[in-house]
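Form 7-S
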Amino acid sequence: MADPISESGINFVSDNCFRIEKSKAYTDLGKGVKSIDFVRVKDNYLLFVEAKTAFPNPYNPDLENLERSHSEINEVRDKFIHSLSLFSSIYVGVSENAFTDIIIMPKKVSLMFILVIKTHKPNWCRRVKTALIDALPSYLKLIWKPTIYVINQATAVKRDLVKS
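Output:
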């Protein structure tokens, strides 16, 4: 088994992964394009994973907190959308093939966007998930039909995404 991917103080399982954020295809793009941490194929799922150490409390009604929360949601949304576009462009050959021979793609996959917030409370994760779903453009939800998860590290361990 490969060394874990360490992001935001979390050690992720790294089998069948593409470190999109570290790829030449991404780093050559420069400013204006955002990236999640990595893409992983698990069974018939294509997981786009972003890890955060912290995130604003979605139950705090303070205006500054709400603005920060909205900004963070938009940042994560953009990372998912940009990464999906970049991954797809590499896969179909528009961008330089940056895949290693480690990643093995099944013929058909279901798409998952996963935000792991290290110590977030589960009920906070649910509210962030709702905000993230609402922030995604309708065209993306119709075309790609992604499943969205916002989970904490403990839940990520239970789902075999993180090394315990």
